[in-house]
Design brief:
Elements lengths: L6 E3 L2 H9 L5 E5 L3 H13 L6 E6 L1 H8 L2 H12 L3 E5 L7 E4 L4 E7 L2 E7 L2 H17 L1 E2 L7 H11 L2 H12 L13 H11 L4 H11 L4 H13 L3 E6 L7 E6 L2 H4 L3 H12 L1
Parallel strand pairs: 2-3, 3-4
Antiparallel strand pairs: 1-7, 2-5, 4-8, 5-6, 6-7, 9-10
């Protein structure tokens, strides 16, 4: 499939899907908005078939803000890990978000609740745009994600904690629009601890898993556990061991959480934290 005509849709997702499905080996994404970055990761993560190499140049502060959402960042990390996606930052960007393929340049223009993908396939213009933005890409600084790939998180959670914990973790994530921990969704450490408490996992085990997989340090898990315990969301009970101090088993501390299905756990927890 080639991109030849302008597109007008109610969301940028349809345009991004069309570009990723076009007959091209590479797409340069230049000057994306917050919505474009978020939607690109969502569309690419669910895309069927081979993906072109996606090279994105974005404003650093904007990119950092978007990647503070664990759901977006962990899916982006999956794409990076697969070699399909790379991100760089630059101070200068295009006036509108641009998608540059080998044969076309698509300019994304938003008007109210509609988005237009204005397309040009003029060979001379496309070649000049590719030269310009390839140079910008090459001169830009690499943006390194600190968030682990979601596939690695899920697999290791199943292997090191339990299949039930992985299932609950997936259910909680799928019930959230964002996972930021700033009042707009629970953060990944809180989610992990709630899932661990639902499955009565040792604090030592979940915090070691979280540190090993790259979610957060053991100290961060411990601090968050203390906060959730003080607010009554989780309880702990001591489990004696042969040598050393007893370890703590996590349990849900509020009856409303205990009786919640996994896909309701995040919503109930957010209401209790409010």
């Amino acid at each position: 499939m080639t991109i030849e005509s302008n597109m007008l849709t109610e969301g940028v997702g349809d345009i991004l899907d069309a570009v990723l499905g076009a007959d091209t080996d590479e797409v340069l994404i230049v000057g994306p908005t917050r919505d474009v970055i978020h939607t690109l990761v969502t569309v690419a993560s669910s895309h069927e078939g081979d993906l072109p190499a996606m090279k994105m140049v974005a404003d650093e502060s904007l990119l950092k803000d978007v990647m503070d959402d664990f759901i977006v960042a962990s899916n982006a990390a999956d794409l990076v890990d697969a070699g399909a996606f790379s991100m760089r930052t630059a101070d200068e960007s295009a006036e509108n978000a641009l998608l540059v393929t080998e044969d076309a340049v698509v300019s994304l223009v938003t008007a109210g609740d509609r988005v237009a993908g204005l397309v040009t396939t003029d060979e001379e213009f496309v070649a000049a745009a590719r030269d310009t933005y390839t140079t910008q890409w090459e001169e830009a600084s690499e943006y390194k994600l600190r968030t682990p790939p979601i596939t690695r998180v899920r697999t290791s959670l199943e292997d090191e904690i339990s299949p039930d914990a992985r299932t609950d973790f997936d259910s909680v994530l799928s019930s959230l629009q964002t996972a930021r921990g700033d009042g707009d969704g629970l953060d990944e450490v809180t989610i992990s601890l709630l899932v661990a408490a639902k499955n009565e996992v040792l604090l030592y085990d979940i915090s070691k898993w979280g540190e090993d997989v790259g979610i957060a340090s053991k100290a961060t898990f411990s601090r968050t556990k203390t906060k959730l315990e003080e607010m009554g969301l989780i309880d702990t009970e001591k489990v004696p061991i042969d040598v050393g101090r007893p370890r703590l088993r996590l349990k849900l501390g509020d009856d409303r959480l205990v009786t919640s299905d996994p896909d309701q756990l995040a919503g109930v927890a957010q209401s209790l934290l409010a």
